[in-house]
Amino acid sequence: MARDLLIKGGRVVDPASGLDGVADILVSEGKIARVDKDIASEGAEILDVSGMIVMPGLIDMHVHLREPGFKEKEDIESGSAAAAVGGFTAVACMPNTEPALDNDAVIAEVVKKAAEIGLCRVYPIGAVTKGRRGQELAELGEMKAAGAVAFSDDGSPVSTSEILRCALEYLKAFDCVLMDHPEDLSLSEGGQINRGLVSTIAGFKGIPREAEEIIVARDILVAGMTGGRLHLTHISTKGSVELIRRAKEKGLPVTCDCTPHHLLLTDKLVLESGYDTNTKMNPPLRTDEDLEALWQGLSDGTIDAIATDHAPHHVDDKWVEYDYAANGITGLETAVGLIVDKLVRSGSISWTRMAEAMSLNPARILGVPGGTLAEGAVADITVIDPELEWSVNPREFRSKGKNTPFEGWRLDGAPYATILGGKIVAKKRCLVS
Amino acid sequence: MELIEKAQIMDREAMRRALIRIAHEIVERNKGLEDVILVGIHRRGYPLAQRLAQILKESESVDVPVGELDITLYRDDLSLRFTQPQVGPTRMPVDVARKRVVLVDDVLYTGRTIRAALDAIIDMGRPQNIQVAVMIDRGHRELPIRADYVGKNVPTSSKEVIHVKVTEIDGLDEVVIAEEKDNE
Amino acid sequence: MTLRGQDLLSLQEMSTADMETVLSTARSLKEILSRPIKKVPTLRGKVVCTLFYEPSTRTRTSFELAAKYMSADTVSIAASTSAAQKGETLSDTARNLEVMGVDVAIMRHSVSGSCHFLARVLDIPVINAGDGMHEHPTQGLLDIFTILEHKPRIRGLKVAILGDILHSRVARSLIFGLTKMGAEVTVAGPGTLLPPYIEDLGVKVFRRVEEAIEGADVVYALRIQLERQNKGLFPSKREYRDFYGLNRRRLSLAQEDAIIMHPGPMNRGVEITTDLADSPRSIILDQVTSGVAIRMAVLYLILGGRE
């Protein structure tokens, strides 16, 4: 029997119970046994976290683990390690693998592998359509039974309004959310970066904001029509925030997330970096106006969650001409530092809001354990050192993907310890064996 | 490095007399002015060449063509310099082929400028011959080059600098000798 | 301020002072082109490599002649004859050339920003000979140089650029170069071929070419790439000619002494009528001559001087 763990002296932030104050947490048998002031427990292992923030384990509801099919970019083991050192106790991984996660056998394989590795809970997201081809519904029920927690054709939007309608109707029986990647492919085709002054200067075909907003609007309408649960992932524009705000006001079952990079970077970086392909992602980096709308949406609750869209790539996929470079950046190992430094420490959002966006809401949307420090809950806990100064060095990443536009950023605040099922799996950004 | 002017070597009148003498020597050496062209080296050689042409026009009633030559592209020290020297104009009023070319410059020192000018002229065609006229010959040659016409020979040390000033560029005519000030 | 050892990637990033240096150097070097023996020894022992991932006759020849007139050795890699077809990356191709002793890489590529990428890959200077829809800085410089051979100054000059602004790297370099030097630039073309927010670059935008040409001192017709028709960006050659082509009637709206320019190669009878292309007002061939002088200047300024 494992020893109990006493997490002592930290500032406990648990939005589910409305707690924000100094308290100790006693963990026993993988569950939260008690949350109280000055718990004394003989024989327990003590983790002194005074001066630190203790929140329910962070859940990244949008990552790409690349397994099966693209192990040179990432695999479940390296992705789990990256999540653990990055402060995440759970990730939901997208089905755009090779083969796609579109049947119960591959879903079960991912679940089994992740459990063996044991560094982080990995929740597979199944493909909505067979082979993500956008034509026939995949076996959603079978996948759910095998461990899929949500469905998405991410990388691409759900192909047509009709397929989306069918999927949303069908999924109601399984109480699963559909996560859509909002992009009108005919408008975005050939685009490399946001359509705007920067694309004009840089000489790129632009991806208009409307390419995203058209699908956001379509999806909201179809969600309203069916009553199915819709989650719009990695929204990036002011227009998307406004559409979703209005949908929520009408009481539609719609949620959304945005990424740290869309909260912090704009398309100007494409020129400032001299066309660094680490500025290439889909959706593309937008403008100051969009960035402000995302901050506003995050603080007023329109945006439910922060997800990294962790998209690791091999250096060969990025060390090429801009048009030929793969989309995306790694996110698991920079997210906490970026959000703490740029949003929380700057006073834009509270610790509670951060815990909601990165733990409680993802848990609720996906319907997975965690997201709370209530007694009896699973003991998935993230401890954050809000004072630790560090700088982003991709060579230190556990992820195979070193593709980040944040290289060299100096940040205050980092994960101090990641506790999974009562066990410390990572401490001070190193794995605990 | 600071330069201190030590002495005036030639004044306006001395320069004028030297140019008149050189003009006469050019006529004498070439037995007239047939096929002679004057080519001033950019920058201060060019006004000196123009003045020689004016003297020849007055004394011999002949219009000698005057060209201007920038030797930057022919320098042998391009790869040693920290910044690229600015490329000046090159203007040849006539084809140099079969001409008697008199190169005109302010100071003859190491000979490298004249070497570059020889290459530049030869790239433009095959002259009958090339002669060199300078206001000051200060010695210290690094190449087997000599002047055919000299305004004044001035023995110098390598620390010294000769400034030939011309009204067209400097606002007055004079030749001064200056020296590098040792920085204690 | 010096260009020695520097990359030349865009006029957007180039200072006005550096542009002036290139223009004045080109003015001095142009004389060499009129010599019977077109050769100066300035860049003897330097190796200039042209790396063309897109077909080009004019620009590559112009760079190669410029290098040869300055006594540099040239090697030219065309994508069709290089390892590019065997799947070698740009980075590998370029680094191989670099370790063989090339002193400067001149690249044309169909992808915007590729020269910026190459500049990160290589230690040697990189000259952009046209990257995608981004820029063609030496073309912009040679166009400004050519204008200055016919007009006293750029400041205050009204320049109308007509046609496919969206896909044109020539237009971008011209807009940045000309506006920095104080010209008043107007652009006009089909709405589908005007990039978004172009007016934020300090140019006036018109949908009708007549409005852009009115009072212009310089009328610049861009090449219309006929393959854009297939993508639905304009309906036909005939319609383009009728509504956007430069002809005598439209030119009459410009200043009486307006000059006509085109970057080549021309689609005669589409973006410009043959009689205008061959008229005394046309300085299209002067542009080509200036191109060699500008590229000699650029090579001299980048390669001359100490490493």
Plain-language structure description:
The complex is a heterotrimer of chains A (433), B (184) and C (307). In chain A, helix 4 packs across helix 7, helix 7 packs parallel to helix 8 and helix 8 runs parallel beside helix 11. Chain A folds into two domains: 105 residues, Urease, subunit C, domain 1 (Roll), CATH 2.30.40.10; 309 residues, Metal-dependent hydrolases (TIM Barrel), CATH 3.20.20. In chain A, the strands form three sheets. In chain A, strands 1, 2, 3, 4, 5, 16, 17, 18 and 19 form a nine-stranded mixed sheet that branches. Chain A has 433 residues and is of the alpha/beta class. Chain A is globular and about 65 Å long. The model of chain B has no long low-confidence stretch (mean pLDDT 92). In chain B, the strands form two sheets. Chain B has a five-stranded parallel sheet, sandwiched between helices. Chain C is globular and about 55 Å long. By secondary structure, chain C is α/β, with parallel strands linked by helices. Chain C starts with 15 loop residues before the first helix and ends with a helix. In chain C, helix 6 links the parallel strand 5 and strand 6. In chain C, helix 1 crosses helix 5, helix 1 crosses helix 11 and helix 5 crosses helix 6. Chain C has eleven helices and nine strands. Chains in contact: A-C, B-C. At the A-C interface, helix 6 of A face helix 4 of C.
Low-confidence stretches of chain C: none
Q: Based on the coordinates given, report the CATH architecture of the largest domain in chain A.
A: Alpha-Beta Barrel
* Helix share bin of chain A: 25-40%
According to CATH, the fold-level topology of the largest domain in chain A is TIM Barrel
Mean pLDDT of chain A: 97
Please supply descriptive tags for the structure shown above.
heterotrimer; A: 433 residues; alpha/beta; Urease, subunit C, domain 1; TIM Barrel; 9-stranded mixed β-sheet; 8-stranded parallel β-sheet; C: 307 residues; 5-stranded parallel β-sheet; 11 helices; globular
How is the topology of this model organized?
The complex is a heterotrimer of chains A (433), B (184) and C (307).
Chain A: E1 5-14, E2 19-28, E3 31-36, E4 45-48, E5 53-56, E6 58-63, H1 76-85, E7 88-93, H2 104-117, E8 121-126, H3 140-146, E9 150-151, H4 161-171, E10 177-180, H5 185-188, E11 193-194, H6 197-202, E12 206-207, H7 209-226, E13 230-232, H8 238-249, E14 254-258, H9 260-264, H10 268-272, H11 288-300, E15 305-306, H12 315-318, H13 335-344, H14 351-366, E16 381-391, E17 410-420, E18 423-427, E19 430-431
Parallel strand pairs in A: 1-4, 1-5, 6-7, 7-8, 8-9, 9-10, 10-13, 11-12, 13-14, 14-15
Antiparallel strand pairs in A: 1-2, 2-3, 5-16, 16-17, 17-18, 18-19
Helix pairs in contact in A: 2-3, 4-7, 7-8, 8-11
Chain B: E1 3-10, H1 12-29, E2 36-41, H2 45-60, E3 66-69, E4 100-108, H3 112-124, E5 129-137, E6 149-153, E7 160-165, H4 167-170, E8 174-180
Parallel strand pairs in B: 2-3, 2-4, 4-5, 5-6
Antiparallel strand pairs in B: 1-8, 7-8
Chain C: H1 16-29, E1 47-52, H2 58-69, E2 73-78, H3 90-99, E3 104-109, H4 114-121, E4 126-131, H5 137-150, E5 158-162, H6 169-180, E6 184-188, E7 204-206, H7 209-213, E8 218-221, H8 237-244, H9 248-251, E9 259-261, H10 274-277, H11 284-303
Parallel strand pairs in C: 1-2, 1-3, 3-4, 5-6, 5-8, 6-7, 8-9
Helix pairs in contact in C: 1-5, 1-11, 2-11, 5-6, 5-11
